[in-house]
Each structure stands twice: as structure tokens, then as C-alpha cells.
Amino acid sequence: MISIENLSYMYKRGTPEENLALNNINLEIKQGEFIVIIGPNGSGKSTLAKQLNALLLPSKGRVLVNGMDTADASHLWEIRRQVGMVFQNPDNQLVATLVEEDVAFGPENLGIDPEEIKLRVDEALAAVGMLEYRKHPPHLLSGGQKQRVAIAGVLAMKPACLVLDEPTAMLDPAGRKEVMAAIKRLNKEEGLTVVHITHFMDEAAAADRVAVMERGKIVMEGPPREIFSRVRQLKDLGLDVPQMTELAALLRNRGVPVSPEILTVDEMVKAICQLT
Ligand code: ADP
User: Which of 3, 159, 7 is nearest to 68 (CA)?
Assistant: First the structure.
């Protein structure tokens, strides 16, 4: 669905090679895939996200969205429609006085027929479990609810891909859970392609694939089990691993033979029960 080829990006002309915000990135994102991008602060995750819907354009290399080059201005609106972005702060993404007006904002700008917009708004709100709040003012919702409304606003444009840049960073644990459940459902049940940037490793564990960034490069990429089993390498980058993976590594250091690829509490319980 998205093809990133030899992509480099510099915010300021003349930036030395080693300080490029993105430095020769190659990545293929398949339709229906759930990919998580992790990496220390300043490693280029947000810059990469903004390249996916032409908010930023490559300094070198190219980004193709369903075959459309993001640098070709004639594709701009179709690319923006197909690749919807959700950002960290839901308050910056909600503009209207009622939830349903907010969700209608995107399709209205696309010039879609009002009857069709109504259908889309209902469908999008239902998809994130917020239909019953459609007449509520967004500012009275919780953080998790606001973020789900922001996601519904993107869904109403019928995107092929959802790019989320730390959508849970400002939420409490309950809000995080709600938003993650909505994202996973959209991916698993509706087949939406998801690119999710996060610093919560438990969220990354739920993905099909994890890409790790450092200083503008992708330094590791693979299924979460494989990536998180490299506890040392991740710690060297200043990153955490899911709690259970860390526990598995500590147990292994003490000579307890559990698998290094454990990600969840259930898997840990099973592994420990098998020891006895
Ligand atoms: P991350 O999302 O992983 O924290 P960013 O993509 O925000 O990383 O930043 C990557 C690099 O680009 C960092 O060195 C950052 O300082 C720089 N950068 C980000 N935004 C800008 C900007 N608007 N102008 C100049 N440099 C920027």
C-alpha cells in the first residue's frame, strides 16, 4: 500500500549526512498490516509519519501511496484522503461544537453529498463505539473519547490507511485502552492498514510488525516477538521492552529456561507452568 524508497529528509538545507531527520529509509507497508514504529525521541518517527500523507515531501528518494508519488501535486488530495492522520493531542483535532459536526468536517471538505455524509458519520462513530455521543459537545468528553472522535473524523473520509502519531500519549490508562481497542478492531475487523507510532511497548507488542528507528534510520524491523527478544539492543537505544519480555530476560539470566519471546502475561503463566 505504501512504498518508501531510499527516503531522506532534512529540515534545513546543508544538514550533514549524519544529522538528517530521515536517512535513506526503505520500508514497504502492506494493505491490512498493523505496523508499529518505535524509537527514542528525535529519531525521526513523526517526520516519517508526515511523509506518508505528503505533509512533508522527500529531500531524496520517494514515497508511493497505492502507486501515487507524494511529490506529484496532482495526487495530493487523493493521498490525504487515503492516508488519514491522528495526532497526539485530541484537543487540537476537534473544532466543532458537536461530535457529529466534527466527524462531518472532513467529508464536507471533500464536497460529499449531505445524505452520504450522514451515513458516513454514523458509521464512523459506530466503528469507534461513540455513536451515542453524537450530539455531545466534544470538549466535555474524556481524552480517550475525544481521541476516538478524532479517529472517526478520519474514518469518515473512507481512508485506506490510518497513521497515528502517539495517539495515546496524553491519555490515562483507561483512555489508552479504549483507543487501542478501537484501533485493533479497525485493523482486524475492517482491514484498515494501521501505522502506529508509540512509546508504549505493550501497544507495540500487539502489532504485526515493529520498526525501530534511531537517528533517522530504521535499525531493526520484524515481528514484535523477534524485536522484543533483543532486550539488550533495545535498552542500549534507551527503549523499554514489554514488561513480560523483560521478566523473561531476567529469569533467563538467573538460569530459568523460559522463552525470550514471551510478550504477554498469559504466555508467561503458561511458560512457568510448563517448567514444573
Ligand atoms: P521523533 O518523532 O522520533 O521524536 P522527529 O521526527 O520529531 O522525531 O524529529 C527528527 C529530527 O528532526 C530531530 O532531530 C528533530 O530535532 C528534527 N526536527 C523535527 N521537526 C523539526 C522542525 N520543524 N524543524 C527542524 N528540525 C526538526
Answer: 3
List the domain range (segments joined by +) for residue 125.
2-241
The whole-model pTM stands at 0.92
Q: Which residues contact 235 (CB under 8 A, 6 or more apart)?
A: 241
Assigned domain for 267 exists: no
**What CATH number should be reported for the domain holding residue 209?**
3.40.50.300
In this structure, is residue 264 part of a structural domain?
no
Asked if 163 and 2 count as a contact pair (C-beta separation under 8 A), the reply is no
pLDDT value at 231 more than 90: no
Q: Which of 36, 46, 50, 217 is the best mutation target for the ligand 1 pocket, counting ligand atoms within 8 Å of the beta carbon and taking the most?
A: 46
Separation of alpha carbons 210 and 224, rounded Å: 6
DSSP 32: T
| Amino acid identity, position 145 | Q
Strands, sheet with 68-69, edge to edge from the N-terminal-most edge strand: 22-29, 2-9, 60-65, 68-69
* CA-proximal residue: ligand 1, atom 17 (nearest): 21
Ligand 1: residues with CB < 6 A are: 11, 21, 39, 41-47
C-alpha cell, 101: 459536526
For 64-131, what is the HEC assignment?
EECCEECCCHHHHHHHHHHEEEECCCHHHCCCCCCHHHHHHHHHHHCCCCHHHHHHHHHHHHHHCCCH
Residue-level length of the chain: 276
Nearest atom (ligand 1) to Cα of 39: 3
Q: Which grid cell is 246?
A: 523483560
pLDDT at residue 206 above 90? no
